[in-house]
Amino acid sequence: MDRKKYVLSFDLGASSGRGIVFSFDGTRMEQICQHRFGNQAVYLNGTAYWDFLYLYQNILEAMIRVGTQYPISSMGIDTWGLDYGVIDSCGRLSGNPVSYRDKRGAAGADLLLRKMTGKELYQRTGTQFLCGNTIYQLFYEIQKHPEQLNNAEAVLMIPDLISYFLTGKKGAEYTIASTTQLLDMKSKQWNFPLISEIGLRKTLFSDIKYPGEDSYTLFSEIQDRTGMKEAKLVTVASHDTASAVLAVPAAEKENFIYISSGTWSVIGIETREPVINEKGFLGNFTNEGGFGKTIRYCRSLTGMWLIQECMRCWKELGQTITYDQMGEGLKDTEEFMCFIYPENEAFQKQCDMPKAIQEYCRKTGQKVPQSQAQIARCIYESLAMNYLETVEILKEQKKADYARIYIVGGGSQAAFLNQCVANATGMQVAAGISEATSYGNAFAQLYHAGEFHSQWEFREMLKREENIRYYEPENKDVWKLMYERYRRVIKNDGGQRI
């Protein structure tokens, strides 16, 4: 008799989605099935929408595929942050959700920051400034197109919206709600005075739910259609980064810094209380929700986007190269040939990235990289230097002795970058678990089922069962000198900081 427990984790990102089945035998977790699908914004009359019906249909297709093969006991959903959908007074979807990349976010920010300062907002919420923050999207709508929200029954973040159309139950999961800039991170509840000040009804916002604590029954017609008659939908850490950080294989009471490494790199620490001060405001640090009502004090930086864009450009030129091939070529390439500032505006949009990097180096009076390996080495060394600045601020803010950095997510497979991070920071790096988000999602389901008693049990299992690679710092004195050179370059680059 199969005594394994099977859970289904849905992880939806801004460019792709996946459903992964995990089995758990009481000792270890194993990925046994995947369903992947694309995701992209659809532009209609100048507005960037998400195709919610397409996403919902792919979730159903994945449920049908796995529901007939495995006795799924539960499922969970995590997604990107910031975006929401509106439920009307009849319980129906009121239009497709708009993407955080749409221009209305910047327009809403401009309007709201005439009413209150960014510093005041930060002091009241502890949330970083991003043009796409939910608060700015909602403020734009209530100012310019109030009809939808005036006639709405609920505003639900994307994972909560999907859950609603699978179960009929409304809720606001804590970690995804923390991306809205409408949460009081001290009380970990909605900031209703702020919500009222921007012209929204309190009743639009559902009760806060915490990951691993609640579950809901699927609609009977969905049970029949998918074969998942026993499965519950569990409230997981539904912000993808929160789920990814759950899969950091750290020991209990260990002081650690994490990097969730993907297109973006989110660098931070776990704490019990929010960190809200001048340094955090000026550095655009944010306080976001984590499992167990924790706070992730973190900063979002440009990550693998730079190398991804270079590889896309090279592929279009017929110069296809794999990450492994690139890693081999880097070993014989000149060290510290040149640096870029990864947050420079020139690198934030899709472009001819190799050319943009060359132009930056030319403008800043440095050697200009020519080969793929030279450009890639410039990117990796510059990313490591950029990470170092954030690591130093975290150490200063918390006055703690951090001995190790954990890198999880897709970027954890970039061995050369991992070594650069160890060298730049002078700290040991532990890297692995490329599907960290889906693992964290599955953990919350298993925790709800009583299979784990804490996240530390789960993290200990990952450390024991998964392939974690360790990188010791090398040539620390040389990297310290090069960091000073990097600082001089970016100080005089003339580029706009974001």
From TrEMBL:
Record SUPFAM superfamilies: Actin-like ATPase domain
Keywords for the protein's UniProt record, in alphabetical order: ATP-binding, Kinase, Nucleotide-binding, Rhamnose metabolism, Transferase
CDD domains named among the record's database cross-references: ASKHA_NBD_FGGY_RhaB-like
InterPro entries according to UniProt: ATPase_NBD, Carb_kinase_FGGY, FGGY_C, FGGY_Carb_Kinase, FGGY_N, Rhamnulokinase
UniProt keyword Zinc present: no
Start and end residues of each Carbohydrate kinase FGGY C-terminal domain: 258-447
Residues of the Carbohydrate kinase FGGY N-terminal domain: 6-246
PANTHER family per record: GLUCONOKINASE, SUGAR KINASE
Protein family per UniProt: Belongs to the FGGY kinase family.
Protein name in the entry: Rhamnulokinase
Gene source species: Blautia ammoniilytica
